[in-house]
Amino acid sequence: MTWHVAEEDLRAYGRGELAPPLLWSADTHLTGCAQCRARLAGTVDPVALDAGWERLDAELDAPRPSVSERLLMRLGVADHTARLLTATPVLRRSWLLAVVSLLVMTVLAVHLVDRPALFLALAPLLPLAGVALSYGPALDPSYEMAVVAPMHGFRLLMIRTVAVLTAGLAFNGLATLALPEYGLLALTWLLPALALTATGLALTPRLGPTLAPALVGGAWLTLLVVAQAHTHGTLVPFTAAGQSASAAIAVLATVLLHQTRDRFDARPVGGFPDGGAV
Known about the structure:
By secondary structure, the chain is mainly alpha-helical. Helices cover 67% and strands 0% of the residues.
């Protein structure tokens, strides 16, 4: 080295007060000069230096946010909320591709057999399954992170539910557009979907995040089988009376869910016990 950083500049550098272009020259020089690095260490408070290294290590070790996480934060979502949202299992590519593939095959099958009941029976189950997979220790790999998150358990559930419903209903809506010949009948899955999802959530504190949606989904399929056996036209859930009943059930389940919201925090570390009251 033909020159070294001046003592005054070195002290200013250590205090973070050295301005460009001297700062750039000092940065470049310190990279290759062990002597100046040793002199710099002697001018800096060891405690402050150690704290600086710790901050640097923490920054380097911190996970890099994904594209969707950065987008959520740009929209004003808090960083910890964005992290919990993007960690939701059913918002990952594998689940979304599976849903799209299932809907495409169902729409194709409906066109082949000319029976929209196949699509109408399946569509309400997808949001219910999505919400079930987004919460609970048995199915959510990020459950431990969610448990210690600085937010009410009910709020976390609602955040994930809205995210899952938005994605699920959007895909179902696109599939509905592929069935224009059935008119408004192709949209009659929406109210049952909301009723099933709300009912599954309302039963979760008592039955658990796995058993509750399983029973609700089973009841829905049983209802369709019974209706199919006794009806030769449009199935009852997709008639005007059935739609009114679905809307009433959705409202009732939503009210019940709100009344039991505190139970989503009264849970052991392992989560809600399947089949037991909290």
